[in-house]
UniProtKB/TrEMBL annotation:
Domain F-box/LRR-repeat protein 15-like leucin rich repeat: 301-489
Protein name as annotated: F-box/LRR protein
A GO-annotated cellular component: SCF ubiquitin ligase complex
SMART domains xrefs: LRR_CC
Pfam families in the cross-refs: DUF7885 (PF25372)
Alphabetical list of InterPro entries matching this protein: FBXL15_LRR, Leu-rich_rpt_Cys-con_subtyp, LRR_dom_sf
UniProt-listed GO biological process terms: SCF-dependent proteasomal ubiquitin-dependent protein catabolic process
Amino acid sequence: MNQNKQQFSITETVNKNIENHQFPSFRNHKSLVGWCTMNYPRVLKNPLFMPKPQPKEDPTHLDYLYQLKMRQDAEQKFTLKKPFQNLQKIQKPILEEKVGVPPDGYKNSTLSLTTSKREARSKIIEETNKDLPQYSNFLPLSCEIPVSKVDENFSRHVRQIGEITYEPNYESEEVRHLKKLPNSILTEQNLMEVLNNELKYLNLQNHTWIKNEFVNKIGYFAPNIEELNLSGTDLVDEVLYELAISCSKLHSIDISNCPVLTEQGIKKFLNAKPNIKKFFAAHNDHSVTDFSLQPLKDAPQLQRINLSFDYNITNATLDYFIDKGQKFKHISLSNCQKLSGEKLSVIIYNSMDHLKHLDLSFMTNEEASKHIMEKIGDCRQLEQLILTGTTNIEDSGISQMINGTNSVKKAPTFQFLKTIKLGGLKSLTNGQLSKLFQITPNLEFVELNNLENISEEVLVTLIKYCQNIQRIFINFTPSIGDAELEEIKQQNPDVLIVRNINKFTDVKDDGLRMPFPPVNLKKKKKKKKKK
């Protein structure tokens, strides 16, 4: 009896709620009674929990037809785009995907963004902001790089191990770090923005991370480039020749310290560039030889040359310049031991009215130092003179430099000379150096390292006659007293005088170890008393 009453009460409650809130066709349905006994619905407790009817979505089935038509039109009007950064990796051309205006009758109001799908929202936003590009400077990237598609079947559930996909990353650690560099550092990506028709000078010194495949195309993106610095890179012969062809206005290049280049590659480049004005190829002793420099005898416009530390060049290279009467503005032949002083003096004499930079450091050939000093004295247009390490130069050589050749008319002073380096010339004394500084009124930097015979008299004369002096290096000069040097520094606070006397350095010391205490400060170990 009680069971029937309970069943009747549930049935009555179900029918009452169904009559008020649902369709009457479900009244007295037996399945509802069993369902209510197992899981009493919250709708029967509170009718306010009834689900409300959702608004009907926009007719998005038109999107498929519209996009299909746009893709068919794009295939007919085929346009090819070549993004530079992906040109080597992409084999198939990328179709330009056009996003058109939605068809007539489509909702253009942004109020429907919350109820429409992702594709519909993007079209509404683009249509609403179609006039924005003419007012905004910050725009998103174009479709040259394909955008990853959104997975419509994605659901927010915890994935199992079998459902996780592992995509291997084949990029090296170096490449990943390069992508994180700021725009101030040149990479293949931001360098592409620099290359244009207005670029005249490009410095890629020590940029080893920029590949040859990119350097090969510089001439096509910057056809008006005139000067290029590729020193310290892994440049190869094929890329160097390609630059000679593609850069028609290129007249200055620096390929110093490029170990991959060969003799044939340099010769082929010089043959293709007879109008070259500047050629720097220092520290390439295996590729810069007399054979590779043969085309320079047909380069009448050559004015600046740097062949320092190219040990294999001989007088044959100098003969190329002597035969054509070449006149240089810049000569750097440091540590070229196979060159004779007689040939060097001829080249210096031919260039005496134009020469501004001369570097003949570490020319230990005794015969070379005898001929060149008198010819250097005729070059009164010099701005920089570097004779560091040419140990055979004595006071007589400095005297020849001061007087010059008697038969040549010249200015009385080196009025343009700003930098002079005489380090390592241990035979020099106070007398000739004082006379030299009296005819160099505009000196700014002087190097007198390892001159053991000079005293503070040279410094007084130098500061007195050279009013523009800024830096003086006098390392390892024990004859100059500490008290006198300190007095000169106090009287001339604007002049930077650098000196270090200590020569006894530890070769294995990397600066990280603690120095050993002096012998006098070491504590003596106490002897243990014998028991």
